[in-house]
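Limitations
The structure tokens in this dataset are predictions for the assembled complex, not deposited experimental models. Users should treat interface geometry with appropriate caution, especially where small molecules or nucleic acid strands are included. An illustrative entry is reproduced here so readers can see what is and is not provided.
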Amino acid sequence: MREELIVSGRMNPHIDPQLQIWEWHIPAYLFLGGLAAGILFFASYFFIKGKSEEYPTAVKLAPIITPVLIGLGLLFLLLDLKHKLYFWRLYTAFKIESPMSWGAWTLMAIMPLSGIWAALNIKSLFPKWDWKFDIVKDAIKVLEEYKTPIAWAMMILSVILGIYTGILLSAFNARPLWNTSILGPLFLVSGMSTGAAAIIILSKSKAERHTFARIDLLLIAIELFLIVHMFMGFRASSQVQIDASAMFLGGQFTAPFWVFVVGLGLVIPAVLEIMEMRNKKIPYMVAPALVLFGGLLFRFIMAYAGQMSRWLY
Amino acid sequence: MRYAMAVDTKKCVGCSDCVVACQTENDVPIGYCRDWIVEVTDGTYPQLELEHRSERCNHCENSPCVRCCPTGASHYSDGGTVMVTKNKCIGCGACIASCPYDARYTHPKGYVDKCTFCIHRVKKGQQPACVAVCPTKCMYFGDLDDPNSEVSKVIKKRKYKTLIPEAGTKPQLYFLI
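Predicted assembly:
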């Protein structure tokens, strides 16, 4: 049998024997970013549609946690940086070809917008809320008049935020598992699905929960289609991508991915959501909690497995 | 100007002198390396072939690391070399993840580091440390735009390959075979 044996003398920390440049921070951030993007998308979409009263959790309550989610994500990103004191260099450049640059600027724009959105809605949720300072009250009064343009900006930026988390990884040609353009849409849909799940958990109205369960069901269906589509693409691609997909089709990630991410995180919540909509007695928290768990695990598995996939030469 | 390097795999014996020379010249932190030796055994027993390669950053013409860098720290410099500006680097790891050759590492001080083609020596008219020290003289460095440079001549004369050209990086490290 013909064999090729490659021995490398290189042993750089975090590079060899296999790449380990990103630990838990990055997948955790990708999850938080996707979740925040999902929530903000639904908030701005249903506000623009004039459904603030029909879906108060989506438009008013859920977005209040997004500045916290984004802030936590940013903290994780900062913790991940190895040359932390220079983080501000992200904002002295805009590199059109670098998804990370896009992401940094998108976060810079959407973080204050999500804060403004939370500030604009907090009074209708907590009637006793007092801003204390007149200047804040005046600012809110001014911003109130621009609520619709703010919602539009937030909707567009939330889609960019959601899709960039996937594009960030798919731009790395060096890691064959990530190097598929399906990853952007897949992460976007997954993020929106976790956003819908968070709204279901926070909502007190059955009608609102059912609407978002239906939305979530559609998103899960798209996600399943994209996952199958992604592996079909890998199987039909070059050797390095066939090898990368083999990690999920018989290799070490097969069980965690198909049992926990696809089974527990997508298929079972979909079944539970259908059963609940048919008025079967199921605690409504279970399905969205599984969706959130699946979304988090999906990002961890993709981040770790992607770093293991490589070119051999 | 297009700086490039050619490594003669028929002459290289894998002694690692280039690795040590680089570590010394560039004050590479202990446990790290900017160039390294790869040994490839290929064939069906007992007909086996052994190839030695002294590898390093390929100073690609279409560098994924320059493309992915969010701050512009990774950039093209003199003669198409790929360089990292320390005080622009945030240590995010995007360039490391983007390099199909895994030629970069994070310096213990936080910024990303890699082969510079010893540009500080080249500017003084010297050869890169690895080339200068090689006991079998298996490495050639120079300007590909100059037809009379050593590297241009040897590439014209000999058969060569580059590493994973299918990654689309247009690598500038040529292996004579």
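Some entries come with short summary sentences. For this one: The mean pLDDT of chain B is 97.
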